[in-house]
Write a structure and sequence with these properties.
Elements (H helix, E strand, L loop, with lengths): L53 H9 L14 H8 L7 H13 L2 H5 L1 H35 L8 H45 L14 H26 L1 H29 L7 E5 L2 E2 L11 E4 L2 E4 L1 H6 L11 H5 L2 E5 L54 H8 L8 H4 L7 H30 L2 H4 L12 H5 L4 H33 L18 H17 L2 H29 L13 H18 L1 H21 L8 H16 L14 E4 L12 H10 L5 E8 L2 H21 L5 E7 L2 H11 L9 E5 L13 H13 L3 E6 L15 E6 L6 H9 L9 E8 L5 H14 L5 E6 L7 H20 L3 H21 L5 H32 L22 H23 L10 H21 L4 E5 L10 H11 L6 E5 L11
Length: 1100
């Protein structure tokens, strides 16, 4: 299967994910030359650049072929044949029914089914076969629904599972299916060798032993040597000419069918003329007739009694007075018919099970027997022994491979004339046929063959004949030769199909480490995949026991079938619009029962093999999830995730969660530069440290402008933010908003980010370091309004100051403290945040310290005890310290800070003309210029307006520079001005403007400002005229800052209660000054403002 048949060559530029290709979507170039001819479709001309005409679509769809993607054969005329053939020609019978029949009927039917019937009995064997056949029938129904839901390119089961359950499940199950197919090849090869060495040419064995006890080990070594030779031979055959394997498939199938017909013919013949296969019993014990012919102790010849070879096997000499085995002396030798026939009534004896331990003798139940002495040794005696311990679940694992092969039709989907019709019909008919054959054979074997012969796995009691061959007509050799070629053919088919399956998975690119196996010879032959397949197959050969290999491949096939059922059930329950199978006889309950049955059979066969298989699949799943290429195939798991997310969102209450379930759901506000890159990446680092991968995180940013104009920049910004989130391991969602103003965009994010109950409850942002610069888009007004809006929305606010000094995710603090200054109760946010931070390895070794402030009337000792008890109930480990802050006089430094703050505020109010005010000034100049132009013809109105604008701009810039200079001067020298603060305010002048007057007034204002500043800073201010509220606030900020610096200057992080902004908006600029003074001198500060609700509780 080639990758381009169902996948585009390149990724989708919008999301980077490869999309499913289609025979008609996005193929507008077809017929584009004559697309615009005529005027009938002029209205849709622009649409035709991306969407084809319906006529083009239908033409493309009608010519769409889905040729098989196997090897290109060596013959030169094959290419021409492919060009001549417009579509595959195989129908249901040849394309699906016969391949399924050939793959299902195989080695287990001929080599193990009689033994299973004899060991488990007819009833339990019937249950085993019925369970396995029901499992495959339910899987076939699910597979038919998936296969008829659209065109299935070559790739069969892997394609169906991966496109229905996604690349992770598809890759995991696809590789498991590949391993199952590979081990199936090993099982068929082992079956071939067993037939060869046991029933055709026993003398060809390389390792020969005389001791019966060592015979099984020698047989295993023979299997290993011959198996290795045969697998090399088969690999060469597949490598040189795979088309000959395909041509011989019908020959192999004919062998299987003839063998089955011979079995039914033998059953009919046994009704009136049973075949003569006598078996020898000693007491009730079955004897192996490999070393003797006469079933008797003595023979009479010429009135002389002579001992037989059987006597010599049990006695130490051929003489009548020899010392013999005790059991041999006490019991008689009898001979019965091994194939009594269908009318004999032997079915009643074979109804029940006869499980046994390893090494026990095969015994006939109703035969009289006298027990021998307990110390008699049975090793070396010609009994028929069981080679393994038998029980019900083990037989299920051995039998299940005989019902696999139901995917043979879907694997040939590319060769079918009408795959959507042929796959369901052919597969279900094949399973029905083979189920009838298996179930009828169980009853017929039990009714025709003696129980001891059925339990004789290798036919030792019938001179080494194949047990099922003894029943066949006209000769046992029909079954022996037929089964030999059947197993050879099945082994070749496995070595042909498994490499192509691996090649398909490798070319999909979902499992990086197997991509080398997607390459092959120039003709498409998967050379590397064939080598790997042969190597894995050799592992099965080295195990050397067919009974041990069968459960292994049962696991992998059952896992594959389980996920086929799961895929159908998921698609049906999701009711996705694209789920419209032509096969209507399915239901999600049938798929669910089939999936449950597959899972049950896995653990019935072998619980430890099942766990190993699931572990392998799980590891592959996680590997693909972690390292694999992202694919968007519209799979059911993605749809299931969407449905589950919708269900969970509906279940999550829209109201606030309980305090015990509260955790910070963050909205992180990022600043982007002109290149749409994040200005402060450490904010995302801090986010991942605070979240540790839990809870909701929405990373938002605002672009100023109109969305239609900023669409490309928005996509670029989103890509940059997502890339940084990936680097910083911040798990969450990105949301970029385009707004005419930056302020409104922030408001939109706070109001509308999130969905339903999954909304943010905490806003994280960086402190605007350049808030004093008016050109900064995140100015102090935006910041203060954001604080107000989070409070109005009942959301917590975290402001990280000096964010660029915060640690990255790679840094580790080996020591230090996280200091919490708990001034006012905010619902417990200050307590919770350090606990969450210390979960991350960056902060794990930091200690938590909590400081609280005691006033004059407070008992600081009792406060400390109460706080320690509170933390104990909160299960938080922290050091507690109560800092006493008594009332004292307000310092001169505080007055100085307040004076400078108020001066600056008033200056800004005078200098920062609003946009409307500037327009009114310019308009007045324009109006005056119109009047003066009539009086002075040499003056141009336009030049006056331009000059006025320039003067206003220059005046504004000069005054701003003067303000900064004066502020710096004031900070270095003690103020000694006695003039009032109002004296520094320039007087507003109301007059009619002309150009000359405007220039004169400009210089007048400038001079008055300069002289005013000189007067202020050369005399002591009148502190009584200052706003006493501002003085008190500044006093708190200065004093608290001094206390914090004294205790926490060396702390790794300081968390402070963030005071709220003033209710009167006139003092907003003062609010920024208070916060600046409060945090001055601290490296890393996190200002915390609670949401007004409790977020931490002492109760369980």
């Amino acid at each position: 299967m080639r990758e381009q048949d169902y996948e585009e060559n390149g990724p989708n530029p919008r999301d980077g994910n490869a999309r499913e290709s289609s025979p008609f979507i996005n193929n507008a170039e077809l017929g584009r030359g004559n697309m615009y001819e005529g005027k009938n479709m002029a209205l849709f001309e622009e649409e035709m650049d991306s969407n084809p005409m319906v006529s083009s679509l239908l033409n493309k769809l009608a010519n769409y072929t889905n040729l098989t993607q196997g090897v290109v054969e060596h013959e030169a005329d094959d290419d021409s044949k492919r060009k001549e053939v417009k579509g595959p020609r195989m129908g249901t019978f040849i394309g699906v029914y016969l391949p399924c029949l050939q793959n299902i009927l195989g080695v287990i039917l001929f080599l193990r089914l009689t033994w299973i019937v004899g060991t488990a009995g007819v009833l339990e064997s019937f249950i085993i076969v019925f369970m396995c056949c029901a499992c495959t029938m339910l899987t076939a129904i699910s597979m038919s629904a998936i296969a008829t839901n659209g065109v299935v390119p070559a790739g069969g089961s892997y394609y169906m599972i991966s496109r229905s359950l996604g690349p992770e499940f598809g890759g995991a199950v696809g590789l498991c299916f590949y391993l199952g197919t590979t081990f199936a090849g090993a099982m068929y090869i082992l079956g071939t060798i067993e037939i060869l060495l046991t029933y055709i040419t026993p003398n060809a064995a390389i390792f020969k032993v005389t001791d019966v006890a060592e015979e099984s080990e020698a047989m295993l070594n023979n299997m290993r040597v011959y198996g290795t030779c045969i697998i090399i031979l088969m690999a060469i055959v597949v490598f040189v000419g795979v088309k000959y394997v395909n041509k011989l498939a019908l020959v192999f199938l004919a062998c299987v069918i003839l063998s089955i017909i011979a079995i039914y013919a033998g059953v009919i013949k046994s009704a009136f003329d049973p075949p003569d296969f006598p078996i020898c019993l000693l007491g009730n014990r079955t004897l192996s007739k490999r070393n003797f012919e006469v079933c008797a102790k003595f023979t009479e010849s010429n009135n002389e009694t002579k001992t037989t070879p059987l006597w010599g096997l049990f006695c130490d000499s051929p003489l009548l007075n020899a010392t013999c085995d005790d059991y041999f002396i006490r019991n008689n030798v009898t001979e019965i018919q091994g194939i009594p026939g269908i009318m004999s009534g032997v079915l009643a004896d074979n109804l029940w099970s006869a499980y046994s331990e390893k090494g026990s003798i095969v015994e006939k139940k109703d035969q009289p027997s006298v027990a021998g002495s307990e110390d008699s040794k049975m090793s070396g005696l010609p009994y028929v022994f069981t080679d393994i311990m038998t029980y019900f679940t083990m037989l299920v694992g051995i039998y299940f491979p005989s019902v696999t092969g139901i995917m043979a039709g879907s694997n040939r989907s590319g060769d079918l004339k009408d795959a959507q019709k042929s796959i369901p019909t052919g597969t279900i008919l094949a399973i029905s046929t083979t189920s009838f054959i298996y179930l009828s054979c169980i009853v017929l074997f039990g009714a025709c063959i003696e129980g001891v012969i059925l339990r004789d796995k290798f036919g030792e009691a019938v001179k080494g004949n194949l047990v099922v061959g003894t029943l066949a007509w006209p000769s046992p050799w029909v079954i022996v030769i037929g089964s030999f070629f059947s197993t050879c053919g099945a082994g070749l088919q496995s070595l042909t199909g498994a490499p192509r399956l691996l090649q398909a998975i490798a070319r999909d690119g979902i499992v990086p480490f197997i991509q080398i196996f997607g390459h092959g010879k120039a003709n498409g032959e998967p050379t590397w995949a064939l080598l790997l397949t042969a190597g894995i197959c050799e592992i099965g050969i080295l195990i050397a026991s067919l009974d041990s290999v069968a459960p292994i491949l049962s696991m992998f096939f059952l896992m594959c079938y389980m996920f086929v059922n799961l895929a159908c059930a998921v698609q049906t329950l999701l009711r996705t619009p694209n789920w419209r199978p032509r096969f209507k006889y399915y239901h999600w309950t049938l798929s669910f029962v089939g999936m449950s049955l597959c899972l049950a059979l896995m653990f019935i066969c072998s619980w430890y093999y099942a766990l190993i298989a699931m572990l392998i699949a799980g590891c592959i799943y996680k590997y693909i999830e972690y390292r694999g290429a992202e694919k968007e195939w519209g799979d059911g798991i993605r749809g299931l995730s969407l449905n589950a997310a919708r269900y969970a969102l509906l279940r999550v209450e829209d109201g606030p969660p309980h305090t015990k379930n509260w955790r910070p759901q963050l909205l992180v506000l990022l600043n982007l530069d002109n290149e749409q890159l994040v200005k402060h990446p450490r904010l995302l680092s801090f986010t991942s440290q605070l979240k540790a991968g839990k809870g909701l995180t929405i990373v938002g940013s605002v672009l100023q402008g109109i969305y239609l104009d900023k669409c490309t920049e928005t996509q670029k910004a989103e890509q940059n933010v997502k890339a940084l989130m990936s680097v910083e391991k911040t798990k969450g969602f990105c949301q970029i908003v385009v707004s005419p103003s930056f302020r409104d965009g922030i408001s939109y994010l706070i109001q509308s980010a999130g969905l339903g109950g999954m909304k943010h409850n905490t806003v994280l942002m960086a402190w605007p370091q350049s808030w004093k610069q008016t050109e900064n888009r995140f100015s102090w007004k935006n910041f203060v309004d954001t604080v107000r809006e989070t409070t109005a929305a009942q959301q917590a606010l975290l402001v990280a100051k000096n964010i660029d000094l915060f640690p990255t995710n790679q840094e580790r603090f080996t020591e230090g403290n996280i200091d919490v200054w708990w001034i006012v109760h905010d619902g417990g946010m200050l307590m919770l945040l350090p606990f969450l931070l210390r979960q991350h390895k960056v902060w794990r070794k930091c200690k938590m310290r909590i400081f609280t402030v005691a006033q004059m009337d407070d008992n600081s000792i009792q406060m400390k005890k109460d706080l320690q008890m509170f933390l104990y109930h909160l299960r938080l480990n922290a050091q507690v310290e109560v800092v006493e802050m008594f009332e004292n006089d307000i310092s001169a430094f505080t007055y100085e800070k307040t004076l400078m703050m108020e001066q600056r505020s008033q200056m800004l109010k005078q200098m920062q003309l609003s946009k409307n005010e500037r327009e009114r000034e310019i308009q007045s100049i324009r109006d005056e210029s119109r009047g003066s132009i009539r009086r002075e013809s040499y003056s141009s109105p336009l030049s006056i307006v331009q000059d006025a604008q320039a003067l206003l701009t220059n005046d504004y810039q000069e005054e701003e520079a003067q303000l900064i200079h004066d502020k710096n001067t004031a900070s270095r020298s003690a103020p000694a001005a006695e003039a009032s603060v109002a004296a520094a305010v320039p007087e507003k002048v109301h007059m009619t403007w002309t150009k000359e007057k405007f220039v004169a007034e400009k210089h007048k204002n400038k001079d008055s400002n300069v002289s005013g500043f000189k007067d202020i800073f050369n005399m002591k201010p009148e502190w009584e005229n200052l706003n006493q509220s501002n003085v008190r606030r500044m006093h708190t900020a200065v004093k608290l800052n001094g206390v914090v610096l004294n205790k926490s200057q060396d702390a790794q992080l300081v968390l402070l209660n963030m005071p709220g902004p003033p209710k009167n908006r006139k003092g907003d600029e003062n609010y920024m000054e208070f916060l600046e003074v409060l945090t001055e001198g601290l490296d890393r500060v996190l200002l915390v403002r609670g949401s007004g609700r409790e977020v931490i509780t002492i109760y369980s």
